[in-house]
Amino acid sequence: MSEANAPRVLVVEDNDSLRRGIARALREAGLELREAASGEAAQALLGDPDVEPFDVVLSDLRLPGADGLEVLRAARQRDARTSVVLLTAYGSIETAVEAMREGAFDFIQKPLDLEQIEVRVARAIEHGRLVAEVRELRAERLARELAGEVVCESVAMRAAVDLAQRVA
After folding, report:
1. Which end of the chain is more exposed for a tag (fewer CB within 10 A), N or C?
2. Residue 32, H or E segment
């Protein structure tokens, strides 16, 4: 996969060594990575119109400034197709339920296993691709259905539309 087509991932973690380790592992897996050390820095990246939307945001839940749920909201507001995976050492069922209601794709408890993170990020990327494919297929189907509803009064125009539908 070329760098231009590589899925884009934002890693948001205030623990520098953990963030760098996750970023290195995901880069080695062929992903394009950006990093943020705080929720506020992540929100700034997500809100910057010059920064392309991310396919996946991998964010700690407890961050200085804005927390992981605020990062989740910013990511989903920017692009609803972005999958957000939240990480936490302090997970509770209530927090996980709230995160999922807000649109989180996944919720991982620390301590982290880098292989597990790679698998979950790969699933999130694949999920995003499938969602995009479904949207595209639905748009194509709608276009075909609407094409069958062309209203024309001219005999010549009706013949042209009939011919186009047969060809399609």
Report:
1. C
2. strand 32-36
